[in-house]
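Check my protein:
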Amino acid sequence: MTDNLSAPSSDTGSPDTVPASGASLAAWANELNTALVGQPAVIEALLIALLAGGHVLLEGPPGCGKRTAARALAASFGAAFSEVPCLPAPAVAALHPQTSNSGEASATGQVLLVHGLEQANLDTQAVLGQALRAAAEDTVELPASQVAPFLLIGCRHPLDSAGVAPLSESLLDRFMLAVPVGFPGVEDETRMVREVSLSPFEDMLAIAAPQRLHTFAQVVRLRASRAEVRVDERLVDYAVRLVRATRYGPRLSTGAGPRAAIALVRCAQARALLQGRDHALPEDIKACAPAVLRHRVRLAVTQRVEGIALEQALAEQLDQVGAPRP
């Protein structure tokens, strides 16, 4: 176990296992931020999920950039982009990574957007859950060189689901991250409106298309190097304690399970990788915790009656868990 959580040990390993430079990965995020104006947290979450091998649930009203974010991410490493609606239920085949005739993964990878999750009935949810489980099993069974960077992005508008079955807890648990997507601030929105309205194009992606700074093969290697990011045993313990804290106390009625703790550690590794580090820090765990946990917990009735938001209750619960010291 590493004694110092703030710095890597002297054993840096071979050059092939050292994560990509922080400058390179920061440039990747900056390119995406030119297309999705004013949403840096969304961009970071998508990159973390891509490198950690998980899927993302984007929650927000129409017109806040969920589809633009998915298209920009796919364009940034040459992946194929496709989208399917939740009604009628999408075919399971459409939700699998693209494969060639030889059975190996596509050389481009795939970013798939599933929109309208707020209208998903029970049959649709069952199909989607099967697809997410199959994608996870494929990733485990195939060698890294044959696994396309497959990212499924589910989109829903939480306030537009009257009369429809809510998403089941088992389905939500299959998404590694759930990220709220709001509207940009006034300066960013003004700039976006100016640039789009005064151009012949329909959106910022056509005006400020991200450069392809990484190839499919490089993203595969980045995914593999995520597992090489060192995690101190105390950080694993911290992740478990954060997750277990959601199961007790007056603020939350339903807590997260062990899959959340696994996701939390992997996301912390991916975040460290994005910042050019070969070791995770307590702040990586803490920064990833809200997006890992917010869709896996339920607000207690007393909190709802008092008008407390889920994000506030979750943050207060997590703040009671002490982080390991350097």
